[in-house]
Amino acid sequence: MTSSLRISRTARASMAAAMLVALTGAAACRQDMHDGPRYKPLQASEIFPDNQSARPIIEGTVPRGFLKDDDVFYTGMLAGANCPHVSWVAFLAGTEPTQDCDIH
User: Fold this and answer.
1) N or C: less crowded end of the chain, CB within 10 Å?
2) CA distance 70 to 86
3) How many CA atoms lie within 13 A of 22 on its CB side?
4) Could you tell me the end-to-end alpha-carbon distance of the chain, in angstroms, rounded to an integer?
5) Residue 71's CB: how many other CB atoms inside 10 A?
6) Where are the beta strands (DSSP E) in 1-104?
7) How far is CA 36 from CA 32, 39, 57, 63, in A?
8) pLDDT per residue over 14-46, tens digit each?
9) What pLDDT sits at residue 86?
């Protein structure tokens, strides 16, 4: 009975090769957005009347991560009487700011 459960080396090698081919084929099918239509930045396009693929940046736009609206948080100083944006910030003992905000 044990001899019927044995799988030959050739059969095992064939199964391993088939699994390798199947996994390689499955990985090659990941072309979701890789081949989709796109434009290079500022490349010519016929979509808009001015033939640009991108719209001009609106005046006054602040890039992500560059809006530093809370001066007290970004300077590490104590909020003065004229600071427009006062936030609550927790400090570890001994790390509290000692200088007053001199920006406002």
Assistant:
1) N
2) 7
3) 6
4) 89
5) 19
6) none
7) 8, 10, 25, 27
8) 889 999 888 887 766 666 666 777 777 778 888
9) 67
Chain-centre distance for alpha carbon 56 = 23
Q: pTM here?
A: 0.30
Q: How far is CA 40 from CA 30, 52, 54, in A?
A: 22, 11, 9
Q: Rounded to whole angstroms, what are the CA distances from 28 to 14, 16, 17, 19, 79?
A: 21, 18, 17, 14, 57
The pair of three-digit structure tokens given for residue 82, joined into one six-digit string = 């004229």
CA–CA dist 39, 53 (Å, integer): 7
Least confident of 11-20, 50-59, 91-100: 91-100
**What values do phi and psi take at 102, rounded to 5?**
-105, 10
Return all residues near 52 (Cβ < 8 A) that are at least 6 apart.
Answer: 42, 44, 45
Provide the token pair at 26.
Answer: 């499955």
Structure letter (DSSP) for residue 46: S
